[in-house]
Amino acid sequence: MNAQTPSGIDPRGPRFGATITSVLLLIVVATGLDSAGTVGTLAERVGQFPFLLLVVITVLFGWGAVAGVSRHPYGVAFKKFVRPRLSAPEFLESPAGPTFAQAVGFIVAATGVVLHLAGVPFGLVGAASAAFIAAFLNAFFGYCLGCEIYLTFAKRGITFGLDKRFGGTVAPETDPHI
Amino acid sequence: MNTTLTVLALVAVATVLGLLWKRTQGRVSKPASASVIPAEFVTPGATTLLQFTTEMCGPCAALKPQLTKLALYRSDIAHREVDALEHIDLASRLNIRSTPTTLIVTDAGEVVGRINGVAPARVFLDAIDGAHKTAA
Question: Angle formed by the axes of helices B2-24 and A12-32, to 10°?
Answer without folding.
Answer: 150
